[in-house]
Amino acid sequence: GAGVSQSPRYKVAKRGQDVALRCDPISGHVSLFWYQQALGQGPEFLTYFQNEAQLDKSGLPSDRFFAERPEGSVSTLKIQRTQQEDSAVYLCASSLTGTSGGNEQFFGPGTRLTVL
Amino acid sequence: AQSVAQPEDQVNVAEGNPLTVKCTYSVSGNPYLFWYVQYPNRGLQFLLKYITGDNLVKGSYGFEAEFNKSQTSFHLKKPSALVSDSALYFCAVRDGNTGGFKTIFGAGTRLFVKA
Description:
The complex is a heterodimer. Chain A has no helices and eleven strands. Chain A is an all-beta fold.
């Protein structure tokens, strides 16, 4: 079956531009996560959705970052007025249920964002 | 607050030898522990997890890990390494008591298996 997909795979933005990153989770997966992975580091939690509800956005680094999942499936991470420090790989992951924190996550290939 | 430490940036092992990739964690409640692997140009893949029960858990590709509560460790092991095991390995933890889903990852350990 299809895994988690993300688009675009690569994005180059000029400083100050807005960007939108898309995630298509595995069909039927309730939970959706966004992570930011800087070069040489592990993924850092940004936000978590259970269906369309954003239950945790404690990892979003600033109010320039905004995520949504309006119909409980596809999610978009938007970054406004991009800065050079936003350059990273943005990972999306989904997991089957929203009732157990013990479920493993299935990761997409990531979007590599470069801000010039 | 949750945290994960992977004390080794890199582990080198000869093919056929046993391998260990170390992980220690800190959570206030019961830990949910995970290992993921990242191959070049591929997304992170789940290897194994500890939620409750037997301290020794077995996962994909012959890997296993042992949960040690007193040492707050969850080291990844394999009895006989393969060249194809060369990849980047991440340990992750979630606090099972809070009911939240925030997952903290370590910085990763790069495993090199030499033929």
